[in-house]
Amino acid sequence: MPVISVIIPVYNCEKYLPATLDAVLNQTFSDFEIIAVNNSSPDGCLRILQDYAERDARIRVLTRPNGGAGMARNAALEIARGDFIVFCDGDDLLSPKTLEILLSVQNKTNADVVCHGFKRIGCDATINDTVPDESIKKIRTASGFAPLFRKKINVMAWGKLYRRSLFDNLRFPAVKIAEDFYTTFKVFERVKKAAYIANRLYFYRSHPTQITKTITAEKITDVFTVAEMLSAELQRMPKKQLRYFSRYAARYQIFGLLTPLLKSPDSNLLTLFCNEWKNLEQNTYVSAHDLTIGRRFVLNALLAGNYETARKRFDFFKKIRI
After folding, report:
1. Rounded-to-integer distance, Cα 33 and Cα 195, Å
2. Where in the chain is the domain with CATH 3.90.550.10?
């Protein structure tokens, strides 16, 4: 059995997929399997996956209806054989020693999850354009949600090595966006020890077709739905942990919607955001008090229906970084 299962959801990324697969296949640690899940991609992704699978027996290819990255990861988790799980998106890159370094840290710490940093790269960047970050200066260990709130650990599914057992009876929710917001918090509820290294081993490709670049009504609803789900499920946690969650949810996951949303001329989306926020405050312990002062001023203008004022305030506070 392989030591690591690398799970790659694939959709509409034929331009970048070969580089992603090469970056994983060329790892210095070789005892792994790749489970690539084709989300009925309309481009040439399936052909690329089949070609690679014919050349390397470590690649297993699944095809399923497009239900988003979370549903693809769920399908892969059902058949994963590795003791550990690593997630990678179909357009991103891993540093050549990523798996080797993560396993080394896990062996030293016996951590349930090993987290590492990432670097944003451009559309056309290649693995040769990335800078290896392979010398580990310090290993930090922690537990609970505090490292998530303090942004020491990002909330994305990628950027981590997980014990496979963390996903026993746990799967990503059926949403198109914010699925890892849910699962990461649920995973860290189970984690007894998390290790963190600052090394930027993951290279996140930024390009115009990404799902997070545009905001739709469905995406707005998904983010608030996940926040409500988590809020209900984490009620039993200590109050300090709940505060970490509510602040993260308000400041980063939910307020983060406004960066692209305020650029949209569609006022209906802003109205939907306001209605969802009001419902969230009414039904959970997440509130405007979890926001920083500047963001609270933006939200207050939005809730009052003063959308143009909200845009101006957002731009102002962004400039002065409040």
Report:
1. 23
2. 4-205
